[in-house]
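Review the following:
>
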Amino acid sequence: MSVLRGGRAGLAWACARVALVPGALFASVPGARADDATPGKPALSATLEPAAAPGHLTFRVTNAGTTAARIPADPRFLVLDLARGTTRASCVFPADARPAAADAELVIDPSGAWSFDVDRDYHCADARARALFAPGSTVTAKYRVDKGHEIASLTLALPAGEPEPPADALPKLPQPLSLRMTPYVDSFDGRELSTSVTVVNETRGPVTAWLRPHVLSFDVEGPTGATSCHRPLTGAPIRELYTHLAPRGTTEVAVLLSAVCPRGTFSREGVYRVTAALDTRMHAGRALGLNTFDGVLRAGAPSIVRIRTTRGGSPKPRLDKPRAAT
């Protein structure tokens, strides 16, 4: 076992080398020995390291042996055990999202390594676990293909994140309405992906507005970049279809994101941040004798959408580039 020290704020993290149960899942590659004079075998170790972005870590598997190692390589095999005081929670991918071991094989040469980003919002669907994934908690990572094949890191104390940016100097003008989104949405492959937007009346009086799915738009940031989603409809509004919100009242607007967004927007596994905006300016009720809210709103916080699998197969894992000698 070896301990490394470094990272921001002098944080210490550790590398744990564990004995692996013999078997085909963590196997040596025949004929790949680095030194033919000495019987070789893989010696796999795992490290869990801080990352620059809040809510992210790096998990790395290194082969310190003399023989290349073949392992099932997919971030969804990772299990995270989090703790703060007596509070415990674990992050485990559902079985339907974990690939077959044979479909994710990767060969790690001697002195080679494979690493991946550990994203709180991707690996932890449980709200309690995501809340624990914060400074003041500890986390242990276990790369568990099955009960007999596991590589574990030592426990890591989660570091403090970057400081919050300063608030705007000018206060925002109060709006009669506000938008809230479903905080977290978990989907197998992004098909039939839906969410709901809650419209809140922030005033002590009633508010009337045209609240239909087609006045909502969505900005999506995901693994392949950013896109916008909107399916406007034309036609004169009908008086009976306006929504009347009671003082401090709320209403929900359900939206099928996979229908309003461009095809393939949510086709790749990963984390997406979806922010809703509402624009009712084209649906003023003045002509119908109604005093309506005619303006633009944007949700204060995005909805986190996790897509567990990629349609057509996950991207192939890649080995780390060799580190320069120091």
In short: The CA atoms of residues 83 and 138 lie 5 Å apart. The chain has two domains: 2-157, 177-307. The longest strand covers residues 270-279.
